[in-house]
Amino acid sequence: MTIFLQLVASGVAVGMIYAAIAFGYQLTFATSKTLNFGQGEALALGALFGLTLAPFTGYWLMIPLVLVFGFALGAVVERLAVRPAIKIKSEYGWIMATIALGIIFRNLAENIWGRDDLKFPSPLPDAAVEMGGIRVLPMEMLIVAGALLMMLCVEIFNRKSIWGKAVVATSNDIDAAGLMGINTKRIITLSYSISAMTAAFAGVLVAPVTLTGATMGAVLALKAFAVAIIGGLESGLGVIVGGLILGVAETLTGFYISTGYKDVPGLILLLVVLSIRPVGLFGKAVIKKV
Amino acid sequence: MILTKRALMGALLGATALGLVPAQAADPIKIGLTGPYTGGSSSMGVSMRDGAKLAAAEINKNGGVLGRPIQLIERDDEAKNEVGAQVAQELINKEKVVATVGFINTGVALAAQRFYQEAEIPVFNNVATGTVITNQFKEPDYDVNYVFRNSAYDVLQAGMMVDEALAQNFKKIAILADSTNYGQLGREDIEKYLATKGVKPVAVEKFNIKDVDMTAQLLKSQQAGADVILAYGIGPELAQVANGMAKLGWKVPIIASWPASMQSFIDIAGTNGNGVIMPQTFIEDKTLAKRASFLDDYYKTYGVTKIPTPVAGAQGYDSVYLIAAAIKQAGSTNGPKIREALENLNTKVEGVVTTYDHPFTAKDHNAISRNMVVFGKVQDGKIVYAKPEDAKNAGVVRVKEKSSN
């Protein structure tokens, strides 16, 4: 039993890493029906930026600066890659453009920070804590708490602030929101900024556990994308549940079936969800009238 | 026109022979230098490249080879098989190299070296360890083999790792290997060697590059009662294995493949990496004059206090000296002649790993034999000799055993 719980605990930690990254996909998709495929690079840039700042400011003080950095980064991505595509009503232009921008960011990061995987100093002790026979790293608990806190903050922002309400309105019906006098272009930029901000924050959050480097986001962002599809691209709750499902499925399969097949159940789940419920477990089914 | 060109060449050759013209004025001898200088295995690639460049600079300072300077043509293969194949064709057809040294990744070596074999140009693996590399063009399918190597190949390393585990009286062995060509070929070698010893591993587990969590692999090994872990992978993931064990509070020794000496392992594993041992051909110590001057030069030239991956740096350095010696002996830059010279090197070549005395024969293209490899141990951020007797004998050059490969 303790083994099962240990596997679940580790799976939850990994799952929350995926969820924290997947959350960013959901934010931009809601407002503009577009995604930033450079989300993994935003994560890496955030982590590397934080790594550079940490010696001067310490871990906790570095976080607000990373948030500002992520916010600006998102705006740049939206202006350069997404807005031109939306303007000419290109359905797919933003896909290539965000991927291209991601590659540019990665190469930039490789030139600045080098190609090696680096160690990110952990703000909490490295020794694991034992709770009822299962062992967790303090950093893993921080990831779970930090990711939930981040999502909570974004939710509160959306529900309570005037800007947030504009974001929600734009998500519901972009044309109606525009007619009501909401500057939807600006709202889309804002959603990209918040999305990249969450990615940058996720970067410094997970970096002490994962490896830090220009390519750290490659695998994580792909898994997070699967999580966003499973959970539903328009649902904040969906990405949490999707992340936990995928993370726990990976560790359980690794132990009870084979570590060689660790990634298989997640992908099967992805296929099943796509064929039975294409909008994801928590997505809203929309009927598109032609 | 042809006549004048010839006359000029003749005059130049005569002049060089007489030592009238400084070596730099002569046409350089082009040698390809290929490895991953970007991406996850770049710390090995860059160390190898920097070591090779030091050797070339030294040779050129002393007058070059055949009166001509050596020019290294650097190309980044990005650890990608297809890029490696492309680089090989470019070096052969466009740059017209007379030989190539390099290759960190087994997959890249296998994809690229057939172009050298076809072009009859020697290709020298100085870091890649896949056992199959030097066997790709073996007799009887091929008359001659243009692939040489001065790194410790996998069968040799796997054997050492297993023997060490058994010598320390461990009975229950768990194998953890990454899912790349490198990891899986290494795992096969370990399993085969274990079978000859009549030992069955209690667990054989796999992990992917960039895996964040090793809980499942480690718990399975722990539940199987493993008392030692043989890990085959590269720096970052090996570090995650060490960190994962610390997290689970499980303490058994790790015997890893050689990349556990990478800087990334030392950095990421931190104190969790202390005590991990791995086969090494070279440890950073200054007991020999040659090694001391190599290390001082390396630190000074590149402004570092430690070679990122010492083994790769040392083997890269030696590989250029071996090729240079062969070109000198062949008296020409003709591929088949260089190969013949390599297979029958008359002069002893003093490198930093060892002094090479007839390192190759027509049948044996591996310069490193088992007696030349020692166990290194991670200790507080450095790789040191794992065994006191090796540390004591650090100043003794371990030369290749006859007919050992």
From TrEMBL, chain A:
Keywords: Amino-acid transport, Cell membrane, Membrane, Transmembrane, Transmembrane helix, Transport. Belongs to the binding-protein-dependent transport system permease family. LivHM subfamily. GO terms for cellular component: plasma membrane. It comes from the Bacteria. The keyword NADP does not apply. InterPro entries: ABC_transp_permease, BCAA_transport_permease. GO terms for biological process: amino acid transport. GO terms for molecular function: transmembrane transporter activity. Pfam families: BPD_transp_2. It is a multi-pass membrane protein. It is found in: Cell membrane. CDD domains: TM_PBP1_LivH_like. The chain crosses the membrane at residues 59-82, 94-114, 134-157, 187-207, 264-287. This is Branched-chain amino acid ABC transporter permease. It comes from Methylobacterium brachiatum. PANTHER family: AMINO ACID ABC TRANSPORTER PERMEASE PROTEIN, BRANCHED-CHAIN AMINO ACID TRANSPORT SYSTEM PERMEASE PROTEIN LIVH.
From TrEMBL, chain B:
The lineage of its organism: Bacteria, Pseudomonadati, Pseudomonadota, Alphaproteobacteria, Hyphomicrobiales. Residues 28-374 form the Leucine-binding protein domain. GO terms for biological process: amino acid transport. CDD domains: PBP1_ABC_ligand_binding-like. Coiled coil: none annotated. Keywords: Amino-acid transport, Signal, Transport. InterPro entries: BCAA_transport, Leu-bd, Leu_Ile_Val-bd, Peripla_BP_I. It holds the Pfam family Peripla_BP_6. It comes from the Bacteria. Residues 1-25 form the signal peptide. This is Branched-chain amino acid transport system substrate-binding protein.
